[in-house]
Each structure stands twice: as C-alpha cells, then as structure tokens.
Specification:
This protein is mostly helical. It has one domain (5-174). The protein is 70% helix and 3% strand. The chain is built from four helices and two strands, in the order αααββα. The chain has helices spanning 5-32, 36-72, 89-107, 127-174; strands at residues 112-114, 120-122. It has a two-stranded antiparallel ribbon with strand order 1-2. It starts with a helix and ends in a 14-residue tail after the last helix. 17% of the residues are buried.
C-alpha cells in the first residue's frame, strides 16, 4: 500500500494518530468513564484502522480474483483431427499458428501447429513470444505477491487497532484512583 513517499507519510502519520487515539481514548474511558472526547478518539481511531484494514482486504480479494482470471481465464482445448479441412492452406496455417501462439502465451504449453501441407509441427516460439510469456508470468507473480501483502496489511491494521485498545484498557486499570475506604466506626 506504500506506492510513493507521500502516501507512505500520510499512511504513517494517519496510522500513528489512529493507534494513539485508540490507546488514549480507551485509557481515558477506562480511567474516567465515557466522556465525549474519549469516545470520539476511540471512534475515529477505530474507524481509521477498520477502514484501512477493510480496504487492504478488499484489494487482496480483487487481486486474487484477477490472478485466478488470468491463470484460468483462457480456454484451452485440443484441436480436432479434421480441424481446418474446409479452409485454404494459408488460412489454416495462419489460424493454426495463432492458436499455438495463444496457447503458449496463456499456458506455456507447446502444441502442434499445421503447416501449408497440413502436417503437424511443434510450435517453436520466437524470442518475442518468449519475452511476452516471461512478462505474463512476471505480472502474475507480482499480482500474487501484492495480494499476499495486502492480506497481511489488513491483518496488521486490525491487530494493531485491537492491541491499542487492549493496551489502553490495561494502562487505565493501573492508573485508576483507589476507591475511598469506608469510614471506620469507632467504639467509645
């Protein structure tokens, strides 16, 4: 989620402020009761952490779906033995080569293509085809890595928010004023 230094600074400052608000607001509520400022601090800090976590998780889900679509979205089927018998030799060769190239780019599989005479030859990718395939694989890997990173970010936003609340409550228990002791009756 940190694309450049401006977003990093805003996320860092906003995240730090949210954690401090959650901690301090919870501490104040635990020590002195629910007052307006303390409740607002907890609400705003919690909203920030929850929304950033939700956005990161939503982004994770979108990236996972996109990755699955890229991985399995291209339909692959074997050609029938009599495929292209009603086509001209050049058209059959051109379409067969396009099919073999698309199969290689999408799945990395080398399949047979038909030449002018109708004989099957194994598709031999050019250097451009290999570069395009490497680019596709690289994009998929980066997308998968980004999806895992966003899932981790979502979990961390929610965890830090929860820990700030628990720490604030724990500190408020230490700083509570002792209850007044009951008056001791004297016997005279």
């Amino acid at each position: 989620m940190t694309d450049d230094w401006v977003s990093f600074a805003l996320n860092g400052v906003g995240g730090f402020a949210a954690i401090v608000c959650l901690f301090e607001g919870t501490r104040r509520i635990g020590a002195r009761g629910a007052r307006l400022i303390a409740v607002l601090m907890v609400a705003l800090g919690g909203l920030f952490c929850a929304s950033y976590g939700a956005i990161a998780y939503w982004t994770h889900e979108i990236q996972i779906e996109t990755s699955e679509l890229l991985r399995h979205g291209v339909f692959f089927a074997q050609r029938l033995p009599d495929w292209g018998k009603n086509m001209g030799a050049e058209e059959r060769q051109t379409l067969s080569l396009a099919y073999a190239r698309a199969t290689y780019l999408a799945h990395g599989m080398l399949v047979a293509r038909l030449d002018r005479s109708g004989a099957g030859k194994l598709f031999e990718p050019s250097q451009e085809d290999v570069n395009r395939r490497e680019s596709i694989v690289s994009i998929r890997a980066q997308l998968d890595h980004s999806a895992r990173q966003n899932r981790s970010d979502a979990f961390l936003w929610w965890l830090w928010g929860l820990l700030a609340v628990l720490a604030g409550y724990g500190v408020s228990l230490e700083n509570r004023p002792a209850p007044a002791s009951p008056a001791v009756e004297r016997r005279d």
